Amino acid sequence: MASSGAQSDPSPETILVTGGAGYIGAHVTAALAASGRSVVVLDDLSTGTADRVPDGVTLIEGDVGDAAVVGAALHDHGVTAVIHIAAKKQVGESVARPLWYYRQNVTAMATLLEGCVDAGVGRFLFSSSAATYGMGSGGVIEEDDPPRPINPYGESKLIGEWLLADVARATGLRYAALRYFNVAGAVSPELGDPGVFNLVPMVFDALTRGERPRIFGADWPTPDGTCVRDYVHVADLADAHIRALDALQATGGEVTPEADAAETVDGLVLNVGTGQGSSVQEVIDAVGRVLGHPVDVEVVERRPGDPAALVASVDRITDVLGWSTSRNLDDMVSSAWEGWLALHPEAASLAE
Ligand SMILES: NC(=O)c1ccc[n+]([C@@H]2O[C@H](COP(=O)([O-])OP(=O)(O)OC[C@H]3O[C@@H](n4cnc5c(N)ncnc54)[C@H](O)[C@@H]3O)[C@@H](O)[C@H]2O)c1
To answer: Which of 111, 186, 223, 227 could covalently link to 192 via disulfide, CB atoms 3.0 to 4.6 Å apart?
Structure first.
């Protein structure tokens, strides 16, 4: 359990993680703490929980959009780098409440950046998303492909990248925007994803309710007819944050991999995926392997706004950070299952 209140003797290198009590943020926080860094979490606990913040890490309960809270967090703790993970992330909700999404994800980020400039924070990592690409081009996506988000959630992430690029140009802030693809798995059951917004927990949820998981279309132009996505283990993702933070520190200036990458002049935009696509059917087959029996599915109509395939090009992150994934789809599904069981013990009978 986290401690709270101001530290009287901040270490020279202190990292503020916003959203550190959430699914991904807790993994990043744990990885940073395990690497010996001093970490402070700022989280309003709107979807996160305090028990995800490791012992020894200060939790400040507050809103990233509150300038006074941000200013105090940065100054009181001598923060030198910020990892901005806090956001609202539900596509459907963003379509229904666009202005609220812009306030949560864009206005709040502007407030955080203002505080960072004021406090002289030198480095900033931002949780961006593959949602910035929208429908993509039907296959492997490179960072320089045109971003064409198709909903307010994806738009809010792209605007966040623009905010960062503009602030970096004006102030010299060094940054990396990490475009996460489909994040799954957990390092331990208690850090499992409590939300039911991604495919793996959605499959577990349907099975737990005694229903067949639904596949939205089996007639896509993909090898088995179901949609293809790039799933990345949350532990590999957390490792990418540590490498990105170190890369920004090591360079002390521009970290542009190619001089002609106009949108990354003052920072770095990186896909975080495996470079390998898995189809919905392949994910469901992996669930079947974990449960010890095949999973029966229901094929329904396609959903509007679903690209057939969205897979990350990982050339840039491999080149710039020397990062690659070490966990596969079965690792993600089996660890996600342990996390699901921790929250839904009644599901235990689903496994043979
Ligand atoms: N989960 C994925 O597959 C995925 C994919 C791409 C990008 N992302 C991005 O990763 C980030 C984390 O996602 P997650 O899956 O861990 O979600 P999550 O909901 O588990 O975590 C978000 C955390 O931020 C906190 N938070 C939200 N708004 C806040 C605010 N205004 N002030 C302070 N704290 C606030 C929440 O309480 C929560 O702890 C988000 O920015 C999301 O857009 C996630």
So the answer is: 186
